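User: Fold this, then the next.

Assistant: Folding the first:
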Amino acid sequence: MNLTTDAPPQIVFVDGIGGRRFFRGVLSRHVARRGHAFHHVGYRPSRESFHTIRARLGDRLGAIAANGPYVAIGYSFGGVLVRSALTTRPELARPLRLVLVASPMHSLRMCRAVRNRSIFRWLTGDCGKLLASETGMQAVALPDVPTTCIYGTRGYVGPFAPAGRGPNDGMVAVAEIDPLRFDDVVTVHASHPSMPSSRPVLAAIDARLSSVA
């Protein structure tokens, strides 16, 4: 179905590794009530290579863009995938805005700590390997589109914290998100798994959607 030019922008949500239907379901219902078509892009890192996932995502973005303007929301590793797809496929229509939710710009301490364990390598495949590599993460550029960075701070801070001693959301440290790189930044008191369904996150997304509608 083709969207009219007066329709609200479509929402493309790219999940994180191990994303849960419950959390993205809250977001999908929230934006649907506001008239936005919602598209979810998931993947299986244990069965698909990073390049395969990225190629499929790029094709999906192209197909969605053919029906009208869209806003891309990348949650956790989903944000890395969106950035990589947009910067390696210049022919793709750009989103009106990119919203990165708890999405790292640097390698993750918790992934580096377990990168040699077979269960981690099996579950996360190429995606986990990338998250454990600072060189690999630095090679994923930011696309030239308006971008919002949303990050959480509701994580344990201490010597045994998975994300280290600094502020974090339980899985990703604020330093790994590198919010100083962004002009539009939102800080919420939420943990990593709950970010897509967090009320402050939904409110921040609403405000950005209003600005592009």
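Now the next one, as you asked:
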Amino acid sequence: MTATLTAPISYETLHLETSGPVTGRPVLLLHGWGSSAALMRPIAEALANTYRIYNIDMPGHGASPAPPQGMGVPEHAALVHDFLTNEIGQPVTLIGHSNGGRIGLHMASQPAYNHHFNRLVLISPSGITPKRGWKYHVRRTTATVLKAPFQILPRALREFGLDWLRHSLVWKLLGSSDYRQLQGTMRETFVQTVNFHVNEAVRAIEIPTLLFWGDQDTAISKYQMDYLDRLIPDAGLVTLKGAGHYGYLDAPDVFEAATRHFLEHA
């Protein structure tokens, strides 16, 4: 699945940090939702003596402006594609954390984008449908019931009513804490992003892939990581003992050693 950017946003508006030798093999860092390039700097600092590092703030994160309209994963992928095509022009290693990993999984599985990458290093990547508990199903059923009366209205009234519902206190309480903290186009971007899954698409990923997961991670489960390890043909999983969702920060020495070995020998 590819996308054409309809919002007036360009990769040139994104905050970019570069480091490392200009002639070094290129490495692209993509942070997770609610994070920023600043939290990916420890990776850049660890690898910049060898590799050319490109560390981006995605739209609405860090120092990059929010998009003028909601963006989903396909639109983020198109933005990254434009950056890689115009600024790097050769295959890169992608190091993606959480939602950055989701974007990487999507791009590496698509014929229109997979030529951009020669390796993936993914830390607790999202994008695999989690096993849902009863609370999720209660919230989903409640949301469906709340929307039902508006579905029978004429289109103009329906859109007005649904917009009112989405801004109501009840609707906000149904959302996650991340959703409740967001406003404007970033709220719509969040909804589009977290509901984008790559379960079957990852079978098409052909490049070597190194997966990291902290055994104290409460955002991404072992089930989701094992799924990726099983379905990506050339994948390996490293479990970081005592680490959480930001495993590369919690176990930096293990992360750096394993990543360097992977980049130099895969």
